[in-house]
Design brief:
Length: 278
C-alpha cells in the first residue's frame, strides 16, 4: 500500500505539470472503487476548472481548483496516478482520466479498486476539509510532531508502540514499512507498550521519523510490488531497508539475525539485539 512517502512523491511529481492547467474532459471506467465514483460532482465541480495546486493530508491528495472545489484522491492499496500523453493506450483499470487543456492526461489506475475519489464542492469545501482533517492524526513531517505530543498521545496506552505509529487517527500516514524502519532506527522494540516510552524515546522516534520519511521521499518511495511515481518510475528506498523484508538476514549493525513476527496481522521485523524486548 502506498504510504506517506509514496503519496508525497506522487504529489510532487504532478504539481508542476498540473498547476495552472484546466480540466478539459473527464472519462470514467464505470467501475466502483472503495466508495462509488462521484460522477455527477466530477462533471459539475471539476470539469472546466483550473487546477491551482495539489496538497497532501495523511495519505490523501487534495487537488485544489480555482473555483474553490477540491478533488480528493486516496490511492488505496494499488492505486497510481500517472501523467501520460493523450494518445497513450488506456488500460482496463484506468478508473478516472482527467484530460488537461494541453492534451496531457492524468490517469488514476487501481487494479484492486481499494482507492477512493471524492469531490468537495466549493460552497462546502472548507467545512468538509475541517471535518476530514480532524479525523486524521499528527502529520509526521509537521511542526506538531514532537516528543511532547507523542508522549501525551501514548499516555497510559498499553498497545504496542508500532500499533500507535500505524494508527491513522493518532499519527497520519506512517504505514507498516516505515513503522518497522523508524523503530529500528530508534532502538525500540515494536511490541513495547506505548505508555512505557519516555520523552527521550519519543524524541528519537520523532527525529528518526522525519529523517527516514524525508530520505524515502528523496529516493522516490518504496517499490515493493507495483508502486510507480507520477512519471512512471519506481522508487528505490527499499535499497535502504535495515529490517523490513530481511528475516533471518544479519542485522547491518550487530550481525544478529533479523526476526519476523506478526502484529495485528502485519509483518513486523526487528533486531533482537538492537531492539531488546520490553
Amino acid at each position: 500500500m502506498p504510504e506517506l512517502p509514496e503519496v508525497e512523491v506522487t504529489r510532487r511529481g504532478l504539481l508542476d505539470h498540473l498547476s495552472g492547467r484546466t480540466v478539459a474532459a473527464i472519462a470514467l471506467s464505470g467501475h466502483r472503487l472503495r466508495i462509488p465514483m462521484p460522477c455527477r460532482q466530477l462533471r459539475e465541480h471539476i470539469l472546466d476548472q483550473r487546477i491551482v495546486t495539489i496538497d497532501r493530508r495523511a495519505k490523501y491528495l487534495l487537488v485544489r481548483m480555482a473555483g474553490g472545489s477540491v478533488l480528493v484522491i486516496h490511492l488505496g492499496m494499488t492505486g497510481k496516478l500517472g501523467l501520460l500523453d493523450g494518445d497513450a493506450p488506456r488500460h482496463r483499470h484506468d478508473h478516472l482520466i482527467l484530460t488537461l487543456d494541453n492534451g496531457k492526461e492524468v490517469r488514476f489506475n487501481d487494479s484492486r479498486r481499494f482507492g477512493a475519489v471524492m469531490v468537495w464542492p466549493a460552497e462546502g469545501a472548507e467545512n468538509a476539509e475541517c471535518t476530514f482533517s480532524a479525523r486524521e492524526g499528527l502529520e509526521p513531517l509537521g511542526e506538531e510532531f514532537t516528543a511532547g505530543q507523542l508522549l501525551r498521545l501514548a499516555e497510559r496506552k498499553t498497545a504496542p508502540v508500532k500499533s500507535l505509529l500505524m494508527n491513522g487517527r493518532l499519527v497520519a500516514g506512517i504505514g507498516n514499512i516505515y513503522a518497522n524502519e523508524i523503530l529500528f532506527a530508534s532502538r525500540i522494540h515494536p511490541l513495547t507498550p506505548a505508555g512505557r516510552l519516555t520523552v527521550d524515546d519519543w524524541q528519537r522516534v520523532a527525529a528518526e521519523s522525519r529523517r527516514i520519511l524525508h530520505l524515502a521521499i528523496a529516493t522516490g518511495g518504496s517499490t515493493i510490488a507495483d508502486f510507480l511515481g507520477a512519471t512512471g518510475h519506481p522508487g528505490y528506498f527499499q535499497l535502504h531497508f535495515q529490517v523490513y523484508g530481511r528475516k533471518d538476514l544479519p542485522c547491518l549493525l550487530c550481525g544478529q539475525p533479523i526476526v519476523k513476527t506478526s502484529l495485528a496481522g502485519r509483518a513486523t521485523y526487528f533486531c533482537p539485539a538492537c531492539q531488546p524486548a520490553p
